Amino acid sequence: MAKRRYGQILGVWLGSLLAIYLMGSVSARFHLPELTRELLIEVFMVIFIVGVNRYGVHGHLYWRPDVSVREQLRVNTFPLFIIGLGLLTSWVAPWSARTGYAIGLAALAGLVAVFEETLFRGIILGSLLTGLSQQRHGVLWAVGLSSLLFSLSHAINLTHQSAAVTAVQVLGTFAMGLLLAVSYLQTRSLIWPMAFHALFDFSGFLRLGLTTGANPQTPLAVELVSVGVAGCWALCLLRPNQQRRVLARFMTEKNTQTTGKGV
Fold it and tell me: Which residues are in the CAAX prenyl protease 2/Lysostaphin resistance protein A-like domain (predicted)?
Protein backbone atom coordinates (compact mmCIF):
# COMPACT_ATOMS: atom_id res chain seq x y z
CA MET A 1 0.00 0.00 0.00
CA ALA A 2 2.82 2.41 0.90
CA LYS A 3 4.68 1.73 -2.37
CA ARG A 4 1.49 2.28 -4.31
CA ARG A 5 0.83 5.57 -2.52
CA TYR A 6 4.33 6.92 -3.16
CA GLY A 7 4.24 5.69 -6.74
CA GLN A 8 0.96 7.55 -7.19
CA ILE A 9 2.48 10.73 -5.77
CA LEU A 10 5.47 10.53 -8.12
CA GLY A 11 3.18 9.71 -11.03
CA VAL A 12 0.95 12.74 -10.45
CA TRP A 13 3.99 14.99 -9.96
CA LEU A 14 5.87 13.80 -13.06
CA GLY A 15 2.66 13.71 -15.09
CA SER A 16 1.97 17.34 -14.19
CA LEU A 17 5.49 18.38 -15.19
CA LEU A 18 5.11 16.54 -18.49
CA ALA A 19 1.75 18.21 -19.12
CA ILE A 20 3.30 21.64 -18.48
CA TYR A 21 6.18 20.90 -20.84
CA LEU A 22 3.90 19.60 -23.60
CA MET A 23 1.48 22.51 -23.27
CA GLY A 24 4.38 24.94 -23.44
CA SER A 25 5.76 23.26 -26.56
CA VAL A 26 2.39 23.13 -28.32
CA SER A 27 1.35 26.69 -27.44
CA ALA A 28 4.71 28.04 -28.64
CA ARG A 29 3.81 26.99 -32.19
CA PHE A 30 0.94 29.47 -32.34
CA HIS A 31 3.07 32.57 -31.64
CA LEU A 32 0.56 33.99 -29.18
CA PRO A 33 1.28 36.99 -26.93
CA GLU A 34 3.23 35.82 -23.90
CA LEU A 35 0.53 36.56 -21.33
CA THR A 36 -2.20 34.94 -23.44
CA ARG A 37 -0.05 31.86 -23.89
CA GLU A 38 0.64 31.55 -20.16
CA LEU A 39 -3.04 32.02 -19.31
CA LEU A 40 -4.07 29.24 -21.69
CA ILE A 41 -1.44 26.90 -20.24
CA GLU A 42 -2.61 27.53 -16.68
CA VAL A 43 -6.30 27.14 -17.56
CA PHE A 44 -5.43 23.75 -19.04
CA MET A 45 -3.36 22.79 -15.98
CA VAL A 46 -6.20 23.69 -13.59
CA ILE A 47 -8.59 21.51 -15.60
CA PHE A 48 -5.93 18.79 -15.75
CA ILE A 49 -5.26 18.62 -12.01
CA VAL A 50 -8.96 18.82 -11.09
CA GLY A 51 -9.62 15.92 -13.48
CA VAL A 52 -6.69 13.89 -12.15
CA ASN A 53 -7.92 14.34 -8.60
CA ARG A 54 -11.57 13.69 -9.35
CA TYR A 55 -11.14 10.64 -11.58
CA GLY A 56 -7.73 9.36 -10.51
CA VAL A 57 -6.16 9.94 -7.10
CA HIS A 58 -9.33 11.04 -5.22
CA GLY A 59 -7.40 13.32 -2.88
CA HIS A 60 -9.39 14.77 0.01
CA LEU A 61 -9.22 18.57 -0.33
CA TYR A 62 -10.25 20.92 2.47
CA TRP A 63 -11.62 24.40 1.90
CA ARG A 64 -13.54 25.64 4.94
CA PRO A 65 -11.24 26.55 7.87
CA ASP A 66 -11.94 24.67 11.09
CA VAL A 67 -10.37 27.27 13.40
CA SER A 68 -11.42 30.79 14.39
CA VAL A 69 -10.51 33.84 12.31
CA ARG A 70 -8.24 34.99 15.12
CA GLU A 71 -6.37 31.68 15.07
CA GLN A 72 -6.12 31.80 11.26
CA LEU A 73 -4.50 35.23 11.48
CA ARG A 74 -2.17 34.12 14.26
CA VAL A 75 -0.76 31.10 12.43
CA ASN A 76 -0.40 33.14 9.24
CA THR A 77 1.34 36.15 10.79
CA PHE A 78 4.69 35.53 9.14
CA PRO A 79 3.33 34.74 5.64
CA LEU A 80 1.11 37.84 5.85
CA PHE A 81 4.18 39.94 6.68
CA ILE A 82 6.17 38.48 3.77
CA ILE A 83 3.32 38.96 1.28
CA GLY A 84 2.69 42.51 2.50
CA LEU A 85 6.36 43.34 2.07
CA GLY A 86 6.39 41.86 -1.42
CA LEU A 87 3.32 43.81 -2.51
CA LEU A 88 4.73 47.02 -1.04
CA THR A 89 7.99 46.68 -2.96
CA SER A 90 6.02 45.86 -6.12
CA TRP A 91 3.96 49.02 -5.98
CA VAL A 92 6.87 51.23 -4.91
CA ALA A 93 9.13 49.90 -7.67
CA PRO A 94 8.65 51.51 -11.10
CA TRP A 95 6.60 49.40 -13.49
CA SER A 96 4.79 50.21 -16.70
CA ALA A 97 2.02 47.60 -16.79
CA ARG A 98 -1.26 48.88 -18.17
CA THR A 99 -4.36 48.28 -16.07
CA GLY A 100 -5.66 45.59 -18.44
CA TYR A 101 -2.29 43.86 -18.46
CA ALA A 102 -2.09 44.01 -14.66
CA ILE A 103 -5.52 42.35 -14.47
CA GLY A 104 -4.21 39.65 -16.79
CA LEU A 105 -1.20 39.15 -14.51
CA ALA A 106 -3.51 38.87 -11.50
CA ALA A 107 -5.62 36.26 -13.31
CA LEU A 108 -2.48 34.31 -14.21
CA ALA A 109 -1.23 34.42 -10.62
CA GLY A 110 -4.60 33.13 -9.43
CA LEU A 111 -4.62 30.25 -11.92
CA VAL A 112 -1.05 29.26 -11.02
CA ALA A 113 -2.00 29.28 -7.34
CA VAL A 114 -5.08 27.11 -7.86
CA PHE A 115 -3.15 24.54 -9.90
CA GLU A 116 -0.02 24.36 -7.75
CA GLU A 117 -1.76 24.45 -4.37
CA THR A 118 -4.24 21.77 -5.43
CA LEU A 119 -1.32 19.61 -6.56
CA PHE A 120 1.30 20.22 -3.88
CA ARG A 121 -0.65 21.07 -0.75
CA GLY A 122 -3.98 19.39 -1.50
CA ILE A 123 -2.97 16.15 -3.22
CA ILE A 124 0.72 15.56 -2.46
CA LEU A 125 0.91 16.91 1.09
CA GLY A 126 -2.42 15.30 1.95
CA SER A 127 -1.31 11.93 0.59
CA LEU A 128 2.06 12.10 2.35
CA LEU A 129 0.33 13.06 5.58
CA THR A 130 -1.77 9.91 5.38
CA GLY A 131 1.13 7.68 4.38
CA LEU A 132 3.47 8.97 7.08
CA SER A 133 0.90 9.39 9.85
CA GLN A 134 2.28 6.42 11.80
CA GLN A 135 5.91 7.56 11.51
CA ARG A 136 7.73 9.62 14.10
CA HIS A 137 7.57 13.27 13.00
CA GLY A 138 5.52 12.13 10.01
CA VAL A 139 3.91 15.57 9.71
CA LEU A 140 7.32 17.24 9.39
CA TRP A 141 8.42 14.69 6.81
CA ALA A 142 5.24 15.30 4.81
CA VAL A 143 5.79 19.06 4.91
CA GLY A 144 9.45 18.75 3.93
CA LEU A 145 8.95 16.26 1.10
CA SER A 146 5.98 18.09 -0.44
CA SER A 147 7.95 21.35 -0.30
CA LEU A 148 10.95 19.64 -1.90
CA LEU A 149 8.85 18.40 -4.83
CA PHE A 150 7.33 21.88 -5.11
CA SER A 151 10.77 23.49 -5.33
CA LEU A 152 12.27 20.89 -7.69
CA SER A 153 9.36 21.44 -10.09
CA HIS A 154 10.71 24.91 -10.77
CA ALA A 155 13.91 23.41 -12.17
CA ILE A 156 11.88 23.10 -15.38
CA ASN A 157 12.60 26.82 -15.81
CA LEU A 158 16.14 25.86 -16.85
CA THR A 159 14.63 25.74 -20.34
CA HIS A 160 14.52 29.54 -20.45
CA GLN A 161 16.73 30.92 -17.65
CA SER A 162 20.22 30.44 -16.25
CA ALA A 163 21.21 27.79 -13.71
CA ALA A 164 22.13 30.48 -11.17
CA VAL A 165 18.70 32.14 -11.34
CA THR A 166 16.99 28.74 -11.25
CA ALA A 167 18.97 27.72 -8.13
CA VAL A 168 17.82 30.90 -6.38
CA GLN A 169 14.24 30.17 -7.41
CA VAL A 170 14.38 26.54 -6.27
CA LEU A 171 15.60 27.56 -2.81
CA GLY A 172 13.06 30.36 -2.58
CA THR A 173 10.17 28.11 -3.56
CA PHE A 174 11.26 25.51 -1.00
CA ALA A 175 11.02 28.17 1.71
CA MET A 176 7.65 29.30 0.38
CA GLY A 177 6.49 25.69 0.23
CA LEU A 178 7.21 25.29 3.95
CA LEU A 179 5.15 28.38 4.79
CA LEU A 180 2.24 27.35 2.56
CA ALA A 181 2.21 23.80 3.93
CA VAL A 182 2.10 25.06 7.51
CA SER A 183 -0.69 27.47 6.60
CA TYR A 184 -2.76 24.63 5.12
CA LEU A 185 -2.19 22.27 8.03
CA GLN A 186 -2.91 24.88 10.69
CA THR A 187 -6.10 26.23 9.08
CA ARG A 188 -7.23 23.10 7.22
CA SER A 189 -8.15 25.30 4.29
CA LEU A 190 -6.55 25.52 0.84
CA ILE A 191 -7.92 29.04 0.50
CA TRP A 192 -5.12 30.50 2.65
CA PRO A 193 -2.16 29.01 0.73
CA MET A 194 -3.88 29.73 -2.58
CA ALA A 195 -4.35 33.38 -1.62
CA PHE A 196 -0.75 33.70 -0.42
CA HIS A 197 0.59 32.00 -3.52
CA ALA A 198 -1.45 34.19 -5.87
CA LEU A 199 -0.39 37.42 -4.15
CA PHE A 200 3.24 36.34 -4.04
CA ASP A 201 3.30 35.50 -7.75
CA PHE A 202 1.41 38.67 -8.67
CA SER A 203 3.96 40.85 -6.88
CA GLY A 204 6.74 38.91 -8.62
CA PHE A 205 5.14 39.39 -12.04
CA LEU A 206 4.90 43.13 -11.45
CA ARG A 207 8.56 43.40 -10.41
CA LEU A 208 10.23 40.83 -12.66
CA GLY A 209 7.88 40.08 -15.53
CA LEU A 210 6.74 36.67 -16.74
CA THR A 211 9.96 35.16 -18.03
CA THR A 212 12.12 35.53 -14.91
CA GLY A 213 11.30 33.17 -12.07
CA ALA A 214 13.55 34.93 -9.54
CA ASN A 215 15.45 38.16 -9.15
CA PRO A 216 18.86 37.50 -10.78
CA GLN A 217 20.40 39.98 -8.33
CA THR A 218 19.40 37.94 -5.27
CA PRO A 219 22.45 36.21 -3.73
CA LEU A 220 22.11 32.48 -3.08
CA ALA A 221 22.96 33.12 0.58
CA VAL A 222 19.81 35.22 0.97
CA GLU A 223 17.63 32.33 -0.15
CA LEU A 224 19.51 29.95 2.15
CA VAL A 225 18.65 32.27 5.03
CA SER A 226 15.01 32.34 3.90
CA VAL A 227 14.94 28.53 3.97
CA GLY A 228 16.32 28.61 7.52
CA VAL A 229 13.78 31.19 8.68
CA ALA A 230 10.88 29.32 7.05
CA GLY A 231 12.12 26.08 8.58
CA CYS A 232 12.20 27.64 12.05
CA TRP A 233 8.66 28.95 11.55
CA ALA A 234 7.49 25.49 10.51
CA LEU A 235 9.15 23.84 13.51
CA CYS A 236 7.66 26.45 15.83
CA LEU A 237 4.09 25.92 14.60
CA LEU A 238 4.44 22.15 14.18
CA ARG A 239 5.72 21.18 17.59
CA PRO A 240 4.95 17.57 18.66
CA ASN A 241 1.63 18.48 20.28
CA GLN A 242 0.64 20.45 17.17
CA GLN A 243 1.59 17.54 14.93
CA ARG A 244 -0.78 15.30 16.86
CA ARG A 245 -3.50 17.93 16.54
CA VAL A 246 -2.97 18.17 12.78
CA LEU A 247 -3.22 14.40 12.37
CA ALA A 248 -6.36 14.25 14.49
CA ARG A 249 -8.06 16.96 12.41
CA PHE A 250 -7.05 15.62 8.99
CA MET A 251 -7.20 11.88 9.59
CA THR A 252 -10.54 11.83 11.45
CA GLU A 253 -12.36 13.44 8.53
CA LYS A 254 -10.78 11.07 6.02
CA ASN A 255 -11.46 7.97 8.07
CA THR A 256 -15.12 8.78 8.66
CA GLN A 257 -15.65 9.80 5.00
CA THR A 258 -17.87 12.70 6.04
CA THR A 259 -18.91 15.49 3.73
CA GLY A 260 -19.14 19.22 4.28
CA LYS A 261 -15.78 20.76 5.06
CA GLY A 262 -13.86 18.27 3.02
CA VAL A 263 -14.43 18.02 -0.71
Answer: 103-202
The rounded Cα 254 to chain-centroid distance in angstroms is 22
Q: What is the pTM of this model?
A: 0.91
- pLDDT tens figures, 44-82: 999 999 999 999 999 999 999 999 999 999 999 999 999
- In a domain, residue 111? The reply is yes
Secondary structure, 3-state, 136-153: CCHHHHHHHHHHHHHHHH
In a domain, residue 122? The reply is yes
CA 188, CA 25: separation in Å to the nearest integer?
A: 36
Number of domains in the chain: 1
Assigned domain for 262 exists: no
The residue range of the domain holding 194 is 2-256
10-29 per-position pLDDT tens digit? 999 999 999 999 999 999 99
Dihedral of CA 7/154/111/118: which sign? positive
Contact 96, 258 (CB under 8 A): no
Q: How many CB atoms lie within 10 A of CB 29?
A: 7
